């Protein structure tokens, strides 16, 4: 009977290495706990020990996994808050081309403002490769837009 739990622990442990889930690790650990308990408890109770320890360990690993995921939910997107330079736009769909990480990316402004080439913005979100950007506040950037055409025609 104890050999059965040793086999379960080894198979579940090896399968865990290939799948990367916490659940098979919990089953392997429950089989090891049952194997150790088999030296102390009667053979008739080992199935209940295995079932109880499997349920407890699977619930604990699920809780731990979700707890860690909640803590890391805001950290996984390192692009947010990064500066971009507007190269051109908007096109017919209201999209801009911006320079970010040495290449051009499509972007849309989150606000209803318009931007000109050379303006600076920051990434506030993204969907796939489409960046959602917001212009930097006026106090932190110079106006790089060309003057209105009426001012240039009077000279």
The residue ranges in which pLDDT falls below 50 over 5 or more consecutive positions are none
Q: Specify the helix fraction band.
A: 40-55%
Counted by DSSP, the helix tally is 4
Domain module count:
2
> For the largest beta sheet, what order do the strands appear in spatially?
1-2-3-5-4
**Strand/helix succession:** HHHEEEEEH
> What percentage of amino acids are in beta strands?
15-25%
Sheet of most strands: 5 strands, mixed, barrel
The helix-and-strand class reads alpha+beta
Radius of gyration: 29 Å
Shape: rod-shaped
What is the fold's blueprint, element by element?
Layout: H1 2-19, H2 22-37, H3 46-71, E1 83-88, E2 96-100, E3 103-109, E4 120-127, E5 130-135, H4 149-153
Parallel strand pairs: 3-5
Antiparallel strand pairs: 1-2, 1-4, 2-3, 4-5
Provide structural commentary.
This protein has 155 residues and is α+β, with helices and mostly antiparallel strands. It has two domains: 2-71, no CATH class; 83-138, Nucleic acid-binding proteins (OB fold (Dihydrolipoamide Acetyltransferase, E2P)). Helices cover 42% and strands 21% of the residues. It has a five-stranded mixed beta barrel with strand order 1-2-3-5-4. Strand 1 (83-88) and strand 2 form a beta hairpin. The longest helix is centred in the middle third of the chain and has 26 residues, at 46-71. The termini are far apart. The mean pLDDT is 81.
């Amino acid at each position: 009977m104890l050999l059965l739990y040793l086999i379960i622990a080894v198979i579940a442990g090896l399968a865990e290495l290939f799948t990367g889930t916490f659940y098979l690790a919990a089953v392997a650990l429950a089989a090891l706990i049952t194997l150790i308990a088999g030296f102390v408890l009667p053979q008739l109770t080992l199935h209940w020990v295995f079932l109880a320890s499997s349920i407890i360990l699977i619930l604990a690993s699920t809780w731990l996994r979700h707890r860690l995921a909640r803590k890391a939910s805001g950290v996984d997107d390192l692009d947010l808050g990064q500066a971009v330079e507007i190269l051109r736009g908007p096109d017919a769909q209201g999209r801009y081309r911006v320079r970010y990480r040495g290449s051009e990316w499509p972007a849309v402004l989150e606000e209803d403002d318009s931007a000109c080439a050379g303006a600076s913005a920051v990434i506030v979100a993204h969907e796939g490769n489409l960046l959602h950007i917001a212009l930097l506040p006026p106090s932190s950037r110079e106006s790089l837009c060309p003057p209105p055409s009426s001012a240039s025609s009077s000279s």
